[in-house]
């Protein structure tokens, strides 16, 4: 058989019963003759609980110390899971990110993987041990523990699969696979058998809480075959790979992202390079800007609107306030009561009228659009947050994703 990398999220290992369930699934793959590496997240709400503990002590703790604290959640998970596999009677070893040799840059709380030293893992696999690895973490050039940000365990698993040439990287979660929409919102949403890397990357970036977008990006780059499966039910999942179909479904999914905030700079000086000056201020603080609208202007003043994540809003507003002399605006407006609703599908690129159909669905549902962004395989609109779920349902129905 071959090498399989599996990843289990926090909900999959949240208590003793689920830890034993996961242990049995891992052993099943091992007993089939495979080498098995498993990346694991912290149990249940452990990460949130640790953040709360930190805020009790120091709400402004450094990111380095937060990484030191948060990485302990995964260490608990891997030890418990290894104990469960020991109980079943199979050889196993648990390893932290630094023991494995996951080397990252030094951006604490949002580190990026630079290299995986596979020597230790290969040594353990040669001894026919199941290797349990702490996801979400690595080590930088200073020997400090770093974390990869929310969803980082997905990225850990894909990095391990790429470094060791795994046949497949199986991402186990509490859903059955990738759906055409969130089944909690759209009752007739259905599971896709497969989806392309590009489509999954867009869906992950636009609020489909199934895979971390950086993990999909890495999987595409290193040609890692991904499978999204349920850790609780024995059903076929969704495969993320290069999909070549003669007649591809026009729209593959509809997403909603509530992690949005809207900022409008009113009465900005209408001079060349002003947009560059504004957005370079934000980029220096690693604030990503998404949807952007700039008015035509009248030669004197213009308005610029854009979106950021809700978490970046306070910092963005402070930057703009501190640099009023550069921004040179009359007023600034903002709100967190917005959502980004998007459609994704590689089949859209060669089909006219997709945007019209989407806008018609929103018109029929009496939902107003405030911003629009498009690419070859996605269309995103900004709507009031109170209308977001209705928008997803209306668009899903209009494209007959049933």
UniProtKB/TrEMBL annotation:
ATP binds at residues 7-10, 173-174, 179, 184. CDD domains: AAK_AKii-LysC-BS, ACT_AK-LysC-DapG-like_2, ACT_AKii-LysC-BS-like_1. The keyword Oxidoreductase does not apply. The keyword ATP-binding applies. InterPro entries: AceGlu_kinase-like_sf, ACT-like_dom_sf, ACT_Aspartokinase, ACT_dom, AKii-LysC-BS, Asp/Glu/Uridylate_kinase, Asp_kin_monofn, Asp_kinase. Keywords: Amino-acid biosynthesis, ATP-binding, Diaminopimelate biosynthesis, Kinase, Lysine biosynthesis, Nucleotide-binding, Repeat, Transferase. Tetramer consisting of 2 isoforms Alpha (catalytic and regulation) and of a homodimer of 2 isoforms Beta (regulation). This is Aspartokinase. It comes from Candidatus Avimonoglobus intestinipullorum. The lineage of its organism: Bacteria, Bacillati, Bacillota, Clostridia, Eubacteriales.
């Amino acid at each position: 058989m071959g090498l399989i990398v599996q990843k289990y999220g926090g909900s999959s290992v949240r208590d003793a019963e689920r830890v034993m369930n996961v242990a049995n699934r891992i052993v099943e793959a091992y007993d089939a003759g495979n080498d098995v590496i498993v990346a694991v997240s912290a149990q249940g709400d452990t990460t949130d609980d640790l953040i709360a503990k930190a805020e009790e002590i120091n709400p402004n703790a450094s990111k380095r110390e937060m990484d030191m604290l948060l990485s302990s959640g995964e260490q608990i998970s891997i030890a418990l899971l290894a104990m469960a596999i020991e109980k079943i009677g199979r050889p196993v070893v648990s390893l932290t990110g630094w023991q494995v040799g996951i080397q990252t840059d030094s951006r604490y709380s949002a580190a990026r993987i630079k290299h995986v030293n596979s020597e230790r893992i290969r040594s353990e696999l040669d001894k026919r041990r199941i290797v349990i690895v702490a996801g979400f973490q690595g080590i930088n050039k200073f020997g400090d523990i770093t974390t990869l940000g929310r969803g980082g365990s997905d990225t850990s698993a894909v990095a391990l699969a790429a470094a060791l040439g795994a046949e497949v990287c199986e991402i186990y979660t509490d859903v059955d696979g990738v759906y055409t929409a969130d089944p909690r919102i759209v009752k007739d949403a259905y599971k896709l058998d497969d989806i392309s890397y590009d489509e999954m990357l867009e869906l992950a970036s636009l609020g489909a809480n199934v895979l971390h977008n950086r993990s999909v990006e890495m999987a595409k780059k290193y040609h890692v075959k991904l499978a999204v499966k349920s850790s609780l039910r024995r059903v076929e999942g969704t495969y993320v790979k290069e999909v070549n179909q003669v007649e591809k479904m026009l729209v593959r999914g509809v997403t909603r992202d509530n992690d949005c905030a809207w900022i409008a700079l009113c009465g900005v000086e209408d001079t060349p390079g002003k947009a560059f000056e504004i957005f370079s201020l934000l980029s220096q603080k690693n604030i990503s800007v998404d949807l952007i609208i700039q008015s035509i202007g009248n030669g004197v003043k213009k308005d610029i609107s854009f979106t950021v994540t809700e978490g970046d809003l306070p910092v963005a507003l402070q930057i703009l306030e501190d640099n009023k002399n550069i921004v040179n605006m009359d007023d600034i407006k903002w709100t967190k009561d917005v959502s980004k609703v998007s459609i994704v599908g590689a089949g859209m690129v060669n089909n006219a009228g997709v945007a019209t159909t989407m806008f018609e669905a929103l018109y029929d549902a009496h939902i107003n659009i405030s911003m629009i962004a498009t690419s070859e395989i996605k269309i995103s609109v900004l709507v009031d947050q109170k209308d977001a779920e209705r928008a997803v349902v209306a668009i899903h129905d209009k494209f007959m994703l049933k």
